[in-house]
Amino acid sequence: MRQLLQGNYAVAEAVRLSRVQVVAAYPITPQTPIYERLSDMELEGKLTGVMMRTESEHSAMAACVAASLTGVRTFTATASQGLALMHEMLHFASGNRVPIVMCNVNRVIAVPWAFGSDQSDSLSQRDTGWLQLYCEDAQEALDTVIQAYRIAEQALFPVMVAIDGFFTSHFMEPIEIPDQQTVDAYLPPFSIPTRFNIEDPAFISSVVSPEQYMGYRERSFADMEKTRPIIREANREYQEIVGRGYGVVEPVDTDDADIVLVTSGAMTSTARVAIASLRAKGHKAGLLKIKAFRPFPTEEVQEALKNVSKVAVLDRNISLGKEGIFCHELKSALYPLPRRPMVSGYIAGICGADVSPEMIEDMVLETLKRDKPTDLPTWVRRETWLQQKQQ
Amino acid sequence: MNRVERMSRTITIKDIEPIIPFSRGTTEIFLTGHWSSRKPVYVEKTSPCRLACPIGNDIARAFHQASLGNYDEALRIYRQENPLPGVCGRVCYHPCESECNRKEFDKAVNIRGFERFVADHGKVDLERDRPSVVRRRKKIAVIGSGPAGLSAAYHLARLGYPVTIFEALPKAGGMLRYGIPEYRLPRKILDAEIGWIKRGGVKIKTNVRVGKDISLADMRKSHDAVFIAVGAHRGSSLGVEGEGMPGVSQGIDFLRSTTMGEKLTVGKQVAVIGGGNTAIDCARTAKRMGAGDVTIIYRRSRAEMPALPEDVDAVGHEGIKLELLAAPKRLVAQDGRLSGIECLRMQLGTPDESGRARPVPVAGSEFTIAVDMVIAAVGQAPDLGFVKDLGLGISKHGVIEISPQTAATNVEGVFAGGDGAGVKAYVADAIASGKTAALGIFCYLEGREIPEELKKHQIGDRSSFSFQHFIDSEAYQVDLKNVVPYAKINTLCFSHIDRNENPEQLKPKARTKGFKEVVGGIDPSRMALEIGRCFKCGTCTHCDLCFLLCPDISIQKNGTNGYTVKTDYCKGCSICASSCPRQVIEIHGGGK
Question: Is A188's CB within 8 Å of B21's CB?
Fold first, then answer.
């Protein structure tokens, strides 16, 4: 069924279709419509599970961890400050290996106080042991949430699905909503009934020795590596059953490219236009969209960029004292290659600032002209970009 | 495995156990509290009201028991220190309320009203409720059955001694009976409390005047220790011309005669000289005896009056005039009868040795008030003729010289207290001096060092001590030296509530028609509010706040008997201590 929906509502539809049993959440802009839509569904009797309206995001995640430990499918959604407040419990979720799915609607982190899209909130949670999948649009968000349950429950890791605040969360797009039967065929009920036995009680999150702790860490690391084929497989089957799919990366025209622009999230759509325009002008330009940030798709990135001489990375985030985070991760993924491309970092669209296809074209052209890599990223803001154009 | 089989696989405990920390055993091998040097200490402490009380009443603990509805237990707590809570609950000058922590929050708790309530509503059989101490043989004589004598006798009897009180007047009570009028202290209350003291083992022989019926020397010979608490029953003279003429009486004699039911004629225009409780009581008694105009003449201003402010207020309600900053110069007679009192106007000068402003006469300010009766109430002194045969030391103020710590006189085995020994002239201080004497006599008879004993049981740094602590410091685990300041009260746990005053149960006009008690008790429903107002500083009320808020497992409940701090896992976060409403828990250590 095709419907005109904003991205937040598309996520709510995915939660409904996944037959989630416990939703524990706290409203925050720009995630609130997910919370509201799920509340409506609960009232209308369309939601299989129950909504828990907690007093904070920290409690929401704590509730999800506890509920998930008892063997039910759980969901939460948050953004920005809410995710930051959840931080401690994110570690509890991954440490307890609970398959929670969370939608984080990317929003800039205070201070200054603002609301626009920015990946710094979710990227700040890089090392909490969650899988992170970044979506380009609302349709991908819906499909990814459903896939996320498959991945999470097989891998026994929590999965964060990130969408861009306002660009994806609030823009209305025609969305293809799969029917319940199709989703049921893809996603069997989640059940781990024997995890707890009241006749033989146990304590979870117990204190361990340093040796034990390191053992759990090593095991988790190994298990995270094993999620790579699970993600691939989950997507392949989804494509088979539902008819749509997304790789952990998506290379566009990279095979013969001299230069490839790498980006993620909603900005990919703008980049597609820019790359097409450059191609039309005769430049051998390509695009690489990165969907999975954790686990980082090292192999796929190497494969796509191994023959490329120049790479421009466009980040809607910044790590002070270094550079854009995708750029940084990409450089480290490329390091083992015998012939590494020259990588230039660009920072644009922070806090949802406007990024036009023309601006992206210029980034690519500038990288093409450059013969030496720069360590620091180039900041591209519309105002200064326009001034430079006029000169 | 095909897709469906793989996906419908149930995850079992075996899948989970290797990948998440999962314990079926104990985690107590990791004593995480060992890394913190700050630890909570749970110990009951002392309230500032108790510190202020000369008798050392365990007020906060009594309030706590009353809050549970245990009025008997609340009374029992009072009686550990004080045999006369019904008396003190009516006539005490309540220094406790001046130091009540609640006064920083809204208004001090009505502690005196509470003591009265507990005495009126609780019941403790003092014959059965006695500390389990050995029966002792050494005999003790107490001379005088006023508050000091009753208190000493009561505590000594509780310590197991045979005690006899010798009282010169027909009934026991001393100044409580013969100096405080019935409208402030009903006789049935006094009789009941004296009755309990007797049931507690004290013998009282009335109509025995030492020095007349038996000599002090003989009494000393026939007893192992003697406590002299004869009070100050002789009024001081005014020292003005005309004092000897008919129509002039001594306030204390006037009050005693009234109590004894002697037929007295009061004048139509009565002047009472003085500003203390005796003066106030004389004026109010005169009014009740049918006097027309009653005027109190006092040489300083109202602020300097030693009488309690609420009693001075009562004077106004009963139509008694106050002539302040005036002192009698001479008494004027007409036809051989008292007709007036010539006064001098005074003004306040520099403070004297008592700290109060010295009254200075204004030259040429003489004025005369027409009176046909003058009652002098300017001070009292003891009658100490009977002590001469033992050679007791008398101070220049005309009172028996004693050591304030032990109540001992210069004669071995003879102790003294109360007004007769120059103790502050309040009921509570007299009771306190009886307590001190009881401990002093115990130490003398049992060969103990009193400074050491006092130090152990002393409340804060004051002269008061706890008899309950003295008798059973093992079971009575209260830190008497640690007084809870207001800053340590967690005021978030309390809300502002109006103070409940004791009601005046008679309208002003009805009051002066007889001797019925003017001030009533607080009814139980209002008292419950007042009991709730008390912070119970330093007394654990088992509110569970520490237990509930401890983020670890460091506060453990001992059933209904308080809490134990288990420091094995305590990180020293101090939440227990800062949340405790009444500073029963505090943090020790740290900060090196």
Answer: no
